[in-house]
Predict the 3D structure of the following.
Amino acid sequence: MEKQEPSAAAVSAFEGLGAELAAAGVVMGKMFGANSLMLNKKALACLNGDKVVFKLGRDTAEHARALELPGAVLFDPSGMKRPFKDWVEVPFSSNEEWPAFAEAALQFVAGE
């Protein structure tokens, strides 16, 4: 995964997601060397530069809605055109949507 340093605003927004989901058992961890939100040692989101990558599940309404946002793409950590089909990278420009996607990712990972 190409390493991009996140802005202070993105870090703050991401940490806010973690705080909001802490009561559900979500903790901060690492995935792909990036700060991540974890539930039972499974990642549900990670910070990648000024984008948050959410595990939404390829066949969910939330996944489709995320991909409709400007700049949102399937997460391709290798950069080799082999995206993780369950994961969507949502840019900071849509950070007001992050809490809803974090909740959806939590529900998806909890149901796995």
In short: Residues 8-110 form one domain. The mean pLDDT is 94. The chain is about 30% helix and 30% strand. The helical segments are 8-21, 61-67, 98-110.
